[in-house]
Amino acid sequence: MMMHIPEFTKPGQWPVLEDSENVMEVEALTDLLVRCVEEASLALYLFNETGEALRGRADDQNQWSQELRAEWKLRQSYMPKIPPDASDEEYERADAEATRRARVDLRQQQLANGVMPSQYVRMLRFMHARSFLYAFDTVDKTLALLAAGPGASEVIAEAKARFKAAFPDLTDVRDSAHHLGDRVQGKRRNRKIDLQPISSRGVDTTGGVLVIDHLNNDKYGSVLGDGRFGEIEVTVESVKLAQDVVQTVLDSITWRGSPDYSP
Q1: In Å, how far are 24, 34, 110, 122, 224 from 176, measured between CA atoms?
Q2: Phi, psi values for residue 124, rounded to 5°
Q3: Measured distance CA(125)–CA(122) in Å, rounded
Q4: Omega before 84 within 30 of 0, i.e. cis
Q5: Which helix (H) or strand (E) holds 14?
Q6: Which of 42-51, 174-183, 202-211 has the highest mean pLDDT?
Q7: What is the pTM of this model?
């Protein structure tokens, strides 16, 4: 799988500002912008990689059948002899324990062979989506700091607005992802959320439904604090837009020293 590597050119080593005390601050913020886009690109690569792994497993009917047979054999070997006069409750307890042991042992065998359980791969996919989200949220916040700080310009303000317009739900989706404990209770700051109807690819309801930590192909979303459903696209197009915004900011600043390239 190809990885998109965002390339950046910092026109110099140090920003040229009226107040030299602010040079290090602006330099650190611009470096942070670059690093966050690079982190988002890496998160995207891992997100897509786990997606491919899941699709491969779903398509491999032979492997799936083998796992079912292996689990059934283990379960049969762990099933104790049940007395003829045993109650249904006793049989169900024995069956549940045999099933538990079979599944645990099968997963341990898979891990010993370097095969991760599918539910763990799915969890990894969500983790990479959230890493992407957090990186973009830091880009948004850093753009705001630059737009309000020393060396601010109309170009930086426009770049900030462009990023915000491209990802209007970014901050709210990030808040929901960071406060999942509140969201699973349908709350925002200890107040009940007024859930709104949802109309999105894969999620379409006429009434309010609590949908959190949700993945629909390349979109990560959640019910927001105001009851709406928000999403962010975890895609190479999103990374390229962020890359262009950050490069625009770098080009808008006056620098001194030799150019720097990343990666």
Answers
A1: 33, 25, 34, 19, 6
A2: -60, -40
A3: 5
A4: no
A5: strand 14-15
A6: 42-51
A7: 0.83
